[in-house]
Amino acid sequence: MVDEHPLEEVSLDEDKEEPRPQLPEEPITAKLSRGRVVVKGEMARVLYDAGHFGTLKSELELVLEAEEALLLIRRKRIQVFDRKGTELDFSVLLQILSERHPRLWTQYLVYSDLRSRGYVVRTGYGKGLWFRVYPRGAKLNEATAKYFVCAISEGSPLKVAELEKLSSLALRNRKKLMLAVLDRQGETTYYLVSHADITAD
After folding, report:
1. What residue ranges do the domains of the chain occupy?
2. For 103-200, which CATH class?
3. Which string of DSSP letters, residue by residue, matches 53-98?
4. What is the pLDDT along the chain (201 residues), one digit of tens a residue?
5. What residues have CB less than 8 Å from 23, skipping those under 6 apart?
């Protein structure tokens, strides 16, 4: 059993984050290398600090997840170039990255929706869990994620056994499990999953 529970109505901590560095007005240059979007140079740390995007490999190298790169392109925060120096727009990059990530479009839409609501979002915690969602204004080195998010498209089956597995994983990690269901119009509805509800059935 799952209960519809819009994410924006869920009670989250209201702690405010200290002002983050501002991104430059001009897009930051990134490169597509071996299927990954990478930002190198002093802008790597700036981009990470400004929005908790990507994973810092060093102070001068930031690796972006596929959905992060797409969102940053859509927001005109980065420009992505291939090895030949050709700029890749949103649709071309989506096509390229989707070869490695077959469900990328769904993943991107849910990620974009969570970010638009002001949440800090990181990639998941194992198979089936796409994202970890932190409170608004969270500091990643101090805060813990409140939710694990599993995303599915409307009409796509999700076995009870799989839901039970994800719910148990969330429970062991003291997280709440959210199902993000994407409809045919690209709108996302969130459902809060109760572990007790599943086992009771």
Report:
1. 28-98, 103-200
2. alpha beta
3. -SEEEETTEEEE-HHHHHHHHHTTSEEEE-TTS-EE-HHHHHHHHH
4. 455 555 444 433 444 444 556 777 899 999 999 899 999 999 999 999 888 899 999 999 999 999 999 999 999 999 999 999 999 999 999 999 999 988 899 999 999 999 998 888 988 776 778 899 987 777 767 778 889 998 888 777 777 888 888 888 888 888 889 989 888 888 899 988 876 555 544
5. 46, 47, 50, 51, 77
What is the rounded distance in angstroms from the CA atom of residue 5 to the CA atom of residue 67? 24
What is the rounded CA–CA span in Å between residue 78 and residue 61? 14
Residues found in the chain:
201
Which CATH fold topology does 28-98 show? MutS, DNA mismatch repair protein, domain I (3.40.1170)
